[in-house]
Amino acid sequence: MTMFFLKTASKPISPGRHARENTGGFTLLEVMIAVSIIALVFVSLFRMQSGTIRLAGTGSFNVLAPALAGQVLAEMEQDLADWNKTSGDFGELYPGYKWTCEISESVLNDLDFIDEDKNKAFKKIRLKIMDRQEQQTYEITTWRLALEE
Fold it and tell me: Which residues have CB under 8 Å from 63's CB, separation 6+?
């Protein structure tokens, strides 16, 4: 009877070393770091995108509001002596935009070249244009001469 012994060459595994030296995957720590970096990049991109959208809305309001104020002032000047509206909107053309105004007497005593009757006809107009949610406002104060015809 003959006995065969199979001799294998193996290295002893020291503590802290893996059984296989060539691992093909990533460790959990590497995956977590990669995911956190990607999350930071996405948060930055979303914040930048929302800021761009907000700036576009502000820009369009800043362009549109003075034009709408001019429209209301033009309507007022047609009949400023009998103007009685204190608020309104712009109808279907500009839904959600509205305006308010305050008209008060503005006697300008320092103007010597204007007679007293015309001096009393000066009106101070304070006009405010507001957007849909009343988050943005445009305010203008002007003086007009309201003469009765």
Answer: none
- Tell whether pTM > 0.70: no
CA–CA separation, 47 and 51 (whole Å)? 6
70 by DSSP, 3-state: which?
helix
DSSP 3-state percent helix, strand, coil across the chain (nearest 5): 40, 25, 40
pLDDT digits (tens, 9 = 90+) for 96-148: 899 999 988 876 666 666 666 666 777 888 999 998 777 889 999 988 877 66
Report how far apart, in Å, the C-alpha atoms of 46 and of each of 34, 38, 40 are.
19, 12, 10
Cβ neighbours around 3 below 10 Å, total = 4
Backbone angles phi, psi at 147, to 5 degrees: -100, 140
Tell me which residue has tokens 């053309």: 93
